[in-house]
Prior knowledge:
Layout: E1 4-6, E2 23-28, H1 35-47, E3 52-57, E4 71-75, E5 79-81, E6 87-89, H2 96-114, E7 118-122, H3 132-143, E8 149-155, H4 165-179, E9 182-186, E10 208-210, E11 226-233, H5 241-255, E12 261-265, H6 272-282, E13 288-291, H7 297-302, E14 304-309, H8 313-322, E15 326-328, H9 338-348, E16 353-354, H10 362-374, H11 386-397
Parallel strand pairs: 1-4, 2-3, 2-7, 3-4, 7-8, 8-9, 9-10, 11-12, 11-14, 12-13, 14-15, 15-16
Antiparallel strand pairs: 5-6
Helix pairs in contact: 1-11, 2-3, 5-6, 5-10
Amino acid sequence: MGGSRWVLTVPTVIAASPDGRRRVLHYSHHSTGLGHLVRSLAVAGALAEQAEVLFCSGGRVPDAMVVPAGVRLVTLPPIGTGESGGLTSLDPQYTLEEAWERRRRELLGCFDAFDPDALLVELFPFGRRKFAGEFTALLERARQGRRRTIVSSVRDLLVDAHRDKQRHDDEAAARLDAYFDAVIVHGDPRFARLEETFRPTVAPTVPVYYSGFVAPSTPVVPTGSRPSQILVSTGGGLLGGRLLDAVVAAHESILGPMGATTRMITGPFMPAEAYGDLSTRADGVEGLTVERFVPDLASAIAESAVSVSLCGYNTSIDLLRAGVPAVVVPYDEDGETEQVSRARRLESLGLVTLLPAAELSPESLATAVLRAVVTRGRPAGLDLDGAATTAQLMSELMSPPVAFAS
Length: 406
């Protein structure tokens, strides 16, 4: 069963219960997709098996999102990426300035009321530079008073094409040494190591641990077998419009006439107008359906003949869990390199068929789908137990509490 979503009008509702368990405040922000939220909630669920967990989310949380049992969720006024590419308040009742102020007040209020033994922050200081003031205020508060364990968690690969990459990495390294006791990388070092995409001039002194990839604890259970189905997914839904356009055209002209059915999962954050337009295009097209969200994407993939998707962290894990042929079209706009790097590594392991975004067309997509079906990948053998390992690492890091750096 899911956890509760707490309202901050009465701070005492998040005060720690007097059962003696360690308390962990986990703060995660997502601006674009769902990847960071899904991964962080999985980690929070594993932590909740042995500690009290208060999870603060800085992005929109879809109503259909399941909160793990034992996790108390606080949703801050969401700030995300607007149509112009800049940050905007996603709650119309607040201006951006009002949202910033309210978020800071509520986040620090959560910390004070909960009084955690450990603070786990996701991605910062490796990313979220636009949110540095918010994170820094929380970290400064965590360093006050009694000793607490402060940990940064980060995915397998970082964006590696910033124009000021060296300065960015140097600033992150300085913040790691100033505030943090450890870094937990949610990846398998056989797949990628942190230093491959994080190269500061002076390496930080904090220890780095690898948890393995974070996968949901629920087993992959297909509800049926659909040997002619192509399952298309685009993560949160803000970045996959071009892929979905190509899918519709490929289905109409090539794949549908061959007998394939195509099920498109757009993601809950796809703008309503774009979703309506896509649904209108799909209406009346035999074998083509459109949905916003499924709670268990891996199982939906597993019952299909082939998957077509971007190559974000969580989608990639779902592909590994489902074990079906897959075509990935990694997002590569605005200097993003993370998905491209992940896709190339997965391709080198024989696990996916890579179609670069620059080569995407209805014809190339249909060709890639047919090629993937006849060149089914082999088992990966990568560590997917990252949530449980993270919980164990956090327990060890909190016993005894780690002293602050001088």
